[in-house]
């Protein structure tokens, strides 16, 4: 069973509510396809349904990247305020943006920034949405609390989006600046500049740099309660042992913990966490999580998402993660972006499925993920 963790470990999802781990095992909830909707409950408890509109779990990159042309430009400036230890991104305005509403020739644009490689909610900053315009004026400062020396390892990603009345986002273009060689003392670099907006090159081939490793073991128990006349479902046990060589994103400090979600269920009840381990890049967790309600056929459709986070004050920064499953690209007949396991992750899952009632162990490299947005 997953042990509870302190309530200060704040969730990185949009609602920003404090999230604590479950103190009991969580039942994997199943669903089946139905003519009337994408999902339908197959029992009294149901798996959180995937969006029939999108066909996939939304990620921090959620939005429409292909329907609108990319045109126009954005005006902004960068400055590092030494007294505040803050990076300031002054977003002034955009001009000649693409029209999301072609008939009326207008959009409802806003600007979003990330400091890469962090694509979590901690690294995201946004301006207000400007209604019905292709030439929005913002004059807003987006602030990042970060030591100046750490900016050398960062890239600034600034993107422009249209947000419609249903809160769906459409991509209007982006600019990316490598801060490794940026001259912060140059007065010219602090002046407002116009940057042409560019298309997104790929759904984020983030960086391939080393993000550390996780040592873990899995076990599938087909019938945890033998002897009952009623058909029983199995359990998946996830033993998070330790992590090695985690990246340092804020100097010599690190306070890491691991979070687990069983996709496609993105509800809060699906999440379990380890305790946070501080002052080391090689934390030992030795924490076992149990998820029940697994039928044999569910093993083909589900995916274990393990993510490692650095907890700092009231925010969590993503360090790396794993997705352990069959990597088929589909779940219960629906194409999903999170069923993207690597060959090593697939091998561990296959070994677990083929070796019931036996712990199977591996040391897997952590990687960047398009993190599934979690529902309430």
UniProtKB/TrEMBL annotation:
The organism's place on the tree of life at top rank: Eukaryota
Record PROSITE patterns: C2
Gene assigned in the entry: Sytl2
Protein name: Synaptotagmin-like protein 2
Transmembrane annotation, as ranges: none
InterPro entries named in the record: C2_dom (IPR000008), C2_domain_sf (IPR035892), SYTL1-5_C2B (IPR043567)
GO biological process: exocytosis
This protein's UniProt keywords: Cell membrane, Exocytosis, Membrane, Repeat
Entry membrane topology: Peripheral membrane protein
Extent of Low complexity compositional bias: 34-46
Region described as Disordered: 1-46
Ranges for domain C2: 70-195, 210-339
Gene Ontology MF, one: neurexin family protein binding
Originating species: Mus caroli
């Amino acid at each position: 069973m997953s042990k509870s963790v302190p309530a200060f470990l704040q969730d990185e999802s949009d609602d920003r509510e404090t999230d604590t781990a479950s103190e009991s095992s969580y039942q994997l909830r199943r669903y089946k396809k139905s003519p009337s909707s994408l999902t339908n409950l197959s029992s009294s408890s149901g798996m959180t349904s995937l969006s029939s509109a999108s066909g996939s779990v939304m990620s921090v990159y959620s939005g429409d990247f292909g329907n609108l042309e990319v045109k126009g430009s954005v005006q902004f400036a960068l400055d590092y305020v030494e007294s505040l230890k803050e990076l300031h991104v002054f977003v002034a305005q955009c001009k000649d943006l693409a029209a999301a509403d072609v008939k009326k020739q207008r959009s409802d644009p806003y600007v979003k920034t990330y400091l890469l490689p962090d694509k979590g909610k901690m690294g995201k900053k946004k301006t207000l949405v400007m209604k019905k315009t292709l030439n929005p004026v913002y004059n807003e400062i987006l602030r990042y609390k970060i030591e100046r020396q750490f900016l050398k390892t960062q890239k600034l990603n600034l993107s422009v989006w249209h947000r419609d009345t249903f809160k769906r986002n459409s991509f209007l273009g982006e600019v990316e600046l490598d801060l490794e060689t940026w001259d912060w003392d140059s007065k010219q670099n602090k002046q407002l500049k116009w940057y042409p907006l560019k298309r997104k090159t790929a759904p984020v081939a983030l960086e391939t740099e080393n993000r550390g490793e996780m040592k873990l073991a899995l076990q599938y128990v087909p019938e945890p309660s033998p002897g009952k006349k009623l058909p029983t479902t199995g359990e998946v046990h996830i033993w998070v042992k330790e992590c090695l060589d985690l990246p340092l994103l804020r100097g010599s400090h690190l306070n890491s913990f691991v979070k687990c979600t069983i996709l496609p269920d993105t509800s809060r009840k699906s999440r379990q966490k380890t305790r946070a381990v501080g002052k080391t890049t090689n934390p030992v967790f030795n924490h076992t999580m149990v998820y029940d309600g697994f039928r044999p056929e569910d093993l083909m459709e589900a995916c274990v998402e393990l993510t490692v986070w650095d907890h700092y004050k009231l925010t969590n920064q993503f360090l790396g993660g794993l997705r352990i499953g069959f990597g088929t690209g589909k779940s219960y007949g629906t194409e999903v972006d999170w069923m993207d396991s690597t060959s090593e992750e697939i091998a561990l899952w296959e070994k677990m499925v083929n070796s019931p009632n036996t712990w199977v162990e591996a040391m897997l490299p952590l990687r960047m993920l398009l993190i599934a947005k979690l529902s309430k």
